[in-house]
C-alpha cells in the first residue's frame, strides 16, 4: 500500500501581482518556490511524527512536475492599496506521535501579524477541542 503520510513539512509564502487571478497566483507560487509542481490541496492535519523543516531544506526536496500535497491559504483583490492577508497556523500536541492541526485563514484589513496570530488560534482551538480541552479564541 502506498504510504502518503508526510514525514517532513515546511512553510513558505509568496505574493503575486498581475492583471488576472491565475497569473497573480502563478507569480505567488514562484515567489514561494513551488511553481514547478502540481499542487494538490489537502485538509488540515499535521501528521503524527512529522517534522517541520526549514524552507530551504524543503525546497531542495521538490522536483519539477512533482505532485505536491499542500495546505495553503490564499487571498486576492483587484482594488488598489487594499490590505489583504492569508496565513496558515500550526498547532501540535506535546505527544508528537499524535496528529496536530494546520489552519487556513484569509482576511481583508488585517496585517501579516494579525492574520498569522488568528490562524494559529484557529489551529490551537481545533487541537484543543480534539483533546477535550476548552479553548476560547
UniProtKB/TrEMBL annotation:
Entry-linked PANTHER family: PYRUVOYL-DEPENDENT ARGININE DECARBOXYLASE
Required cofactor names: pyruvate
UniProt-listed Pfam families: PvlArgDC (PF01862)
First and last residue of the signal peptide: none
A Gene Ontology BP annotation from the UniProt entry: L-arginine catabolic process
Root EC class: lyase
The protein's name: arginine decarboxylase
The enzyme's E.C. designation: 4.1.1.19
Keywords for this protein: Decarboxylase, Lyase, Pyruvate
Keyword Lyase belongs to the record: yes
GO MF term list: arginine decarboxylase activity
Annotated SUPFAM superfamilies: Pyruvoyl-dependent histidine and arginine decarboxylases (SSF56271)
InterPro entries, alphabetized: Pyr-dep_his/arg-deCO2ase, Pyr-dep_his/arg-deCO2ase_sand, Pyruvoyl-dep_arg_deCO2ase
Catalysed reactions, as listed in the record: L-arginine + H(+) = agmatine + CO2
Amino acid at each position: 500500500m502506498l504510504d502518503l503520510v508526510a514525514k517532513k513539512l515546511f512553510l513558505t509564502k509568496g505574493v503575486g501581482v498581475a492583471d488576472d487571478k491565475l497569473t497573480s497566483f502563478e507569480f505567488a507560487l514562484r515567489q514561494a518556490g513551488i511553481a514547478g509542481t502540481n499542487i494538490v490541496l489537502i485538509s488540515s492535519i499535521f501528521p503524527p511524527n512529522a517534522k517541520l523543516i526549514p524552507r530551504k531544506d524543503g525546497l531542495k526536496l521538490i522536483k519539477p512536475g512533482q505532485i505536491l500535497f499542500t495546505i495553503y491559504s490564499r487571498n486576492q483583490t483587484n482594488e488598489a492599496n487594499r490590505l489583504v492577508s492569508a496565513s496558515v497556523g500550526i498547532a501540535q500536541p506535546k505527544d508528537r506521535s499524535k496528529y496536530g492541526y494546520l489552519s487556513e485563514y484569509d482576511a481583508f484589513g488585517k496585517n501579516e501579524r494579525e492574520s498569522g496570530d488568528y490562524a494559529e488560534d484557529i489551529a490551537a482551538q481545533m487541537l484543543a477541542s480534539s483533546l477535550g480541552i476548552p479553548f476560547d479564541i
